[in-house]
Amino acid sequence: MALGLAFPFKAADDAAAKDKIAAVTREFHARFKKQYGSIICRGLLGYDIETEEGAAKIKETGINKKVCPEVIDGAVEIVRALVKENKA
Q1: Which of the residues 10, 11, 38, 50 has an alpha carbon 20 to 30 A from that of 70?
Q2: What is the 3-state secondary structure (H, E, C) of 22-55?
Q3: Which residues contact 48 (CB under 8 A, 6 or more apart)?
Q4: Residues 46, 50, 53, 57: is their CA dihedral positive or negative?
Q5: C-alpha R_g of the chain
Q6: CA distances in angstroms from 72 to 5, 25, 61, 64, 77, listed in the order given
Q7: Nearest 10 degrees: CA dihedral of 25, 26, 31, 33?
Q8: N-term to C-term CA, the chain
Q9: pLDDT tens column, 13-59
């Protein structure tokens, strides 16, 4: 969402703006995956939150309290870098 706000397009036929946000989003995914190994919660946490067993394990271990804040901070930094690099 943050990237969409930084690189908006106002007209459905604005191909250049759509291409820009698509490219920046792909770059975000690439950097995030390189840094954290996955862009999917179960890959980041090691458990599938959508299953009873996985949700129980996440709650039991509290892994989300360590991993999620770190990943969110990292995502913010990646977005900041991409906005800076692409706004120039």
Answers
A1: 50
A2: HHHHHHHHHHHHHHHCCCCHHHHHCCCCCCHHHH
A3: 42, 54
A4: positive
A5: 16
A6: 17, 16, 19, 11, 9
A7: 110
A8: 20
A9: 999 989 999 999 999 999 999 999 999 999 999 999 999 999 999 99
| Number of residues that this document lists for the chain | 88
**How many angstroms separate the CA atoms of 19 and 23, rounded?**
6
Q: pLDDT tens digit string along 4-18?
A: 899 888 888 999 989
Tokens 């770190």 appear where? 70
Where do we find the tokens 């690189």? 7
From CA 20, how far away is CA 74, in angstroms rounded?
22
Residue 87 in tokens: 């706004």
